[in-house]
Design brief:
10 helices; single chain; 48% helix; 5 strands; alpha+beta; 5-stranded antiparallel sheet
């Protein structure tokens, strides 16, 4: 079994899209191996987004904290018997910019925002879902959101 990490972001939860997104993931042949409903804190978000914060600076950090702090997110481990699970899930999710995501993808069908609008308004892009971009990122992000005690299936 192979795993990848995703997180349903505050805009997906607030818009009531959780069930629709999970259904789409399952219809793509993915299983939800572990899910954790939690409230995001500035500390965990800054840890999760450490790389883009280092790349884009304090403005990105403040926008991420404003977007996530105190809001509900659903970090998940997805599982499938396919070695290409990480790029496959990213294809199912669609391009980071919802306006550039192709129809049939989660962001392409359900996304309302754009990177252009979010940058013009100095805020995070509301693109519904985060999907790890590499096996290394899966390991790092899963360790941020889950512990061996809460997610034995992945850490054993």
């Amino acid at each position: 079994m192979y795993y990848t990490f995703i997180m349903l972001k505050p805009d997906a939860v607030a818009q009531g899209l959780t069930e629709e997104i999970v259904t789409r993931l399952k219809n793509a042949g993915l299983a939800i191996a572990h899910v954790h409903c939690t409230t995001a804190t500035p500390e965990i978000i800054c840890h999760h987004y450490a790389e883009p914060i280092a790349k884009y600076g304090e403005g990105f950090r403040e926008n991420a904290k404003r977007y996530f702090d105190g809001k509900t997110v659903l970090p998940m481990l997805l599982a499938a018997e396919r070695a290409d699970i990480v790029p496959f899930v990213r294809t199912v999710v669609g391009a980071t910019d919802p306006k550039k995501a192709v129809p049939g993808t989660i962001r392409g069908d359900l996304g309302r925002d754009s990177l252009e609008a979010s940058m013009a308004e100095n805020r995070m892009c509301e693109n519904l879902i985060h999907a790890s971009d590499s096996p290394q990122a899966v390991r790092e992000e899963a360790a941020i959101w889950f512990t061996p005690e809460t997610c034995k299936i992945y850490f054993d």
